[in-house]
Design a protein that fits this description.
This protein is an alpha/beta fold and 331 residues long. It has a single domain (3-181, 214-255, 293-308), classed as Rossmann fold. Helices cover 41% and strands 17% of the residues. It has 11 helices and 13 strands. The chain has helices at 12-23, 39-43, 80-85, 87-108, 144-164, 188-197, 217-229, 232-243, 261-271, 297-303, 311-328; strands at residues 3-7, 27-32, 51-55, 70-73, 111-117, 168-173, 176-177, 202-205, 211-213, 215-216, 250-253, 258-260, 279-282. The protein has a 7-stranded parallel sheet, with helices on both faces. A two-stranded parallel sheet has the order 7-10. Helix 2 (39-43) links the parallel strand 2 (27-32) and strand 3 (51-55). Helix 4 runs parallel beside helix 5, helix 6 runs parallel beside helix 9 (261-271) and helix 6 crosses helix 11. The two termini are 36 Å apart. 46% of the residues are buried. Bound molecules: nicotinamide-adenine-dinucleotide (NAD) and uridine-5'-diphosphate (UDP). The site of nicotinamide-adenine-dinucleotide has 30 residues, from helix 1, strand 2, helix 4 and strand 5. It is found in: Golgi apparatus, Golgi stack membrane. Pathway: Nucleotide-sugar biosynthesis; UDP-alpha-D-xylose biosynthesis; UDP-alpha-D-xylose from UDP-alpha-D-glucuronate: step 1/1. Belongs to the NAD(P)-dependent epimerase/dehydratase family. UDP-glucuronic acid decarboxylase subfamily. GO terms for molecular function: NAD+ binding; UDP-glucuronate decarboxylase activity.
């Protein structure tokens, strides 16, 4: 039985991950300051003796008395409206947060899986995006507090890996959706589903021709678990031998099927046939990336992982979740 620390555990990805870790019979310590996370999400775990919740802000040093085997560092507001609401807090979470996590990992000799993002590629000039692409990021725009914070966090991971031999794995997550997203999150999939269920117009920003590649949460959780499972030397040697990758491990995780935002809007409306919503066009936010699609060759080769859930199937499950939340619980 492993003891696993999950920061940001009350958030969307954290809740789904913790559910699976507890099902797999691990002990889980969840750290969250409830900035964007929902206490409602983790209520279901509170009676489980293998679950412990600590309310804490990871920008402050973290002390854990128990031995920790693994750390998943997920804490960070992730939706553009949330991360732009308190940009300095977002930057601090990425930067001071990762320093505190890496220091904790050093003390406990724990493995770390750090959640980075496709945003490190910015508005990409290479398509699809491989891990070796350095990105095209505006350091002084509204998205910079998130993108640049995540880039610095990757640099800290690299330096701790190099200087102290820490066992660190970075995952660059591409747009992921599914149950347990906060209804006020503001990201596109939950926005469209909630709008359609409430018969409100679907808000497409810009002309809707920008693209994203949408990954269902179960595929990501499966990928992260496989990534964490593999032995450090085996992982690093495989990356080196097959891809000439001789730095800290980094893997893209996302679904390579790419859709325009307008296609997504029509798909959601098709799957909620009773909806009376139409589509309205709103201004495109500044620095909104034009297109995004992961190259997942490295994860496929090294972990034998690739996403299985098609957009339609994942949307159906997410729609069911929000229907339940709205209709039965009246949220
Ligand atoms: P989320 O907003 O649902 O969850 C983030 C959680 O972190 C929340 O529970 C929040 O309260 C907590 N948190 C934020 N700052 C904190 C701090 N300083 N101390 C303690 N807790 C803090 O977001 P999510 O979608 O679950 O994303 C989780 C991680 O995955 C983030 O690091 C995000 O950058 C990364 N990521 C997510 C996606 C995606 O599509 N969902 C894509 C790329 C990267
Ligand atoms: N978007 C949209 N309507 C919304 C929310 C988002 O058209 O109600 C667009 C947004 O401008 C972007 C894409 O959908 O082009 C994905 O946005 P999201 O915030 O989900 O993720 P990110 O921009 O971080 O990829």
């Amino acid at each position: 039985m492993k003891t696993i620390l999950v920061t940001g555990g009350a958030g969307f990805i954290g809740t789904n991950l913790i559910k699976r870790l507890l099902e797999d019979n691990n002990k889980v310590i969840c750290i969250d300051n409830n900035y964007t996370g929902r206490f409602e999400n983790i209520k279901q775990f509170l009676n489980n003796p293998n679950f412990k919740f600590i309310k804490h802000d990871i920008t402050k040093p973290i002390k854990i008395e128990k031995e920790i085997d693994e750390i998943y560092n997920l804490a960070c507001p992730a939706s553009p409206p949330h991360y732009q609401k308190s940009p300095i807090f977002t930057l601090n979470t990425s930067i001071f947060g990762i320093i505190n996590i890496l220091e904790l990992a050093k003390k406990h000799n724990a493995k770390v899986l750090h959640a980075s993002t496709s945003e490190v590629y910015g508005n990409p000039l290479e398509h699809p995006q491989k891990e070796s692409y350095w990105g095209n990021v505006n350091p002084i725009g509204p998205r910079a507090c998130y993108d640049e914070g995540k880039r610095v966090a990757e640099t800290y991971c690299y330096e701790y890996w190099k200087s102290f031999g820490l066992d660190i794995r970075i995952v660059r997550i591409f747009n992921t959706y599914g149950p347990y997203v906060d209804p006020n999150d503001g990201r596109v999939v939950s926005n469209f589903i909630i709008q359609a269920l409430k018969n409100e117009p679907l808000t497409v920003y810009g002309d809707g021709k920008q693209t994203r590649s949408f990954q269902y949460i179960d595929d990501l959780v499966e990928g992260m678990l496989k990534y964490m499972e593999v032995d450090k030397n085996k992982l690093e040697n495989k990356l080196k031998d097959k891809f000439n990758w001789d730095t800290v491990p980094v893997l893209n995780m996302g679904n390579p099927e790419e859709f325009t935002i307008l296609e997504l809007a029509y798909k959601v409306l098709e799957l909620i046939p009773e909806s009376e919503s139409d589509i309205v066009f709103k201004p495109l936010p500044k620095d909104d990336p034009v297109r995004r699609r992961p190259d997942i060759t490295m994860a496929k080769e090294v972990l034998g992982w690739e996403p299985k859930v098609k957009l339609e199937e994942g949307l159906k499950k997410t729609i069911e979740y929000f229907r339940e939340l709205f209709i039965r619980k009246g949220v």
